[in-house]
Amino acid sequence: MSEEAGRVFREAWIAGVKKHYPGEPKPGYIARWEETPEWERQAAATVCEQLRAFLQVSEGSAAKLTREQKGRFVSLCWIAQIYKHFGDPKPSYVADWSEQPEWQRETNSDIFEAVERG
Where does the pLDDT of residue 38 fall: very low under 50, low under 70, confident under 90, or very high at 90 and above? Predict the structure, then answer.
């Protein structure tokens, strides 16, 4: 796992939260990389690397995905990481796309597009 990939993911997450979260986000949502728990750093790096691999094997075709499809991909990859790191996670941590708050869906779409831009 690459720390650089994790930082890319985390920076895109923080930017998305600041843009889309209604009101004042929880401190943990916008914590700096160094303040982020180890499991979350690992998860961020893994999801960013999964996304990069997906973009590579799609040979540019991922650009044709809708914004929602892009966000769904990030969301599913993240949910898998939650299950990996927590045996019995809270339902809100593994909520399906349709059950996630709008700010979270928008942030996930932003993450995809940030990694896509490189």
Answer: very high
Helices 102-117 and 3-20 cross at an angle (nearest 10°) of 140
Distances (CA, A) of 5 to 20, 22, 98, 110, 115: 22, 27, 27, 15, 9
On whether the CB atoms of residues 8 and 50 are closer than 8 A, the answer is: no
pLDDT in tens, 1-27: 799 999 999 999 999 999 999 999 999
Distance CA 50, CA 76 (A): 11
Q: Hey, what amino acid is at 69?
A: Q
Please enumerate in sequence order all residues whose Cβ is within 8 A of that of 55, keeping only pairs 6 or more positions apart, or say none. Answer: 62, 115, 116
Q: How far apart are the C-alpha atoms of 55 and 83, rounded to whole Å? A: 24
Look-up of token digits 């923080």: 14
Check residue 60 and report its DSSP letter: T
Quick check: 30 and 14 in contact, CB under 8 A?
Answer: yes
- Comparing C-alpha atoms, which of 69, 71, 83 is closest to residue 39? 83
pTM for this model (two decimals): 0.95
